[in-house]
Design goal:
Keywords: Disulfide bond, Hydrolase, Metal-binding, Metalloprotease, Protease, Secreted, Zinc. Its EC number is 3.4.24.77. It is an enzyme of class 3 (hydrolase). It catalyses: Hydrolyzes proteins with a preference for Tyr or Phe in the P1' position. Has no action on amino-acid p-nitroanilides. With 218 residues, this protein is of the alpha/beta class. It has two domains: 59 residues; 145 residues, Collagenase (Catalytic Domain) (3-Layer(aba) Sandwich), CATH 3.40.390. It is 46% helix and 16% strand. It has nine helices and six strands, in the order H-H-H-H-H-E-H-E-E-E-E-H-H-H-E. The protein has a six-stranded mixed sheet with strand order 2-1-3-5-4-6. Strand 1, helix 6 and strand 2 form a beta-alpha-beta unit. Bound molecules: zinc ion (ZN). Zinc ion binds next to helix 8. The site of zinc ion has 6 residues, from helix 8.
């Protein structure tokens, strides 16, 4: 009977793969087992989803990625942000008030931050090397042209939280970036941008520090 159950449930296990594949198998196995033993089939689908959602919080740390998934806290270091430190704090506050699945917090002293924010003379950009991980360059070029510093801050943090540019776009969209013009001072993500970040951090596999770096030059 147990064997039959395994066969019936295989397609569901497979359909979860894209979300679940980065979770180390030792943490996945107990869930499959308890599901097989305890749950009836229709309930198992819902139960599995619920468990997978809670797993990121409950899973014991099995390496840097698991620790990250457990916390869902993205730490940042704005010590290199020079005159933009206040704008960084406001951009952080925007995101912390906009979403619940991830929160940005200053790294404590001695702790290696997930995100570094540094001022420079180029165009604002974000080098993202994983979800919730990377470097934001707070470029003075756009500030000098009159772009709003808090919008720049929350926009670049949006890249860190997994959002791409959505250009051209209206001022109501945060990720429309500079295409909304210098008169746009809106630092808030719109409903779909919030939902996308909630999705990004709502799954079981929150990873950080992957090898590939994506640079968003705006
Ligand atoms: Zn951008």
């Amino acid at each position: 009977m147990a064997v039959r159950h395994v066969h019936v449930q295989k397609p569901e296990a497979r359909s979860q793969k894209p979300e679940a594949q980065k979770v180390p198998s030792p943490t996945r196995r107990p869930i499959v087992t308890s599901r097989r033993l305890v749950r009836a089939l229709p309930a198992a689908v819902a139960a599995t989803l619920a468990l997978a959602g809670g797993q990121a919080v409950a899973a014991p740390a099995a390496g840097p990625q698991a620790e990250h998934a457990a916390a869902r806290v993205v730490t940042y270091d704005a010590s290199g942000a020079a005159e933009f430190k206040d704008a960084v704090s406001k951009g952080v506050a925007v995101w912390n008030e906009s979403v619940t699945n991830v929160q940005l917090k200053p790294a404590t002293s001695g702790q290696r931050a997930n995100v570094r924010i540094v001022a420079d003379d180029g165009w604002p950009r974000a080098a993202v090397d994983g979800l919730g991980s990377g470097t934001v360059y707070f470029g003075r070029q756009a500030v000098d042209q009159g772009y709003n510093t808090v919008r720049i801050s929350s926009h670049e943090l949006g890249h860190i939280l997994g959002l791409p540019d959505k250009k051209p776009g209206p001022c109501s969209s945060l990720m429309s970036g500079s295409t909304a013009g210098t008169s746009c001072a809106n630092p808030n993500p719109d409903a779909s941008e919030k939902a996308e970040v909630e999705d990004n951090f709502g799954g079981a596999a929150v990873t950080s520090g992957t090898a590939r770096t994506t640079v968003y030059a705006d």
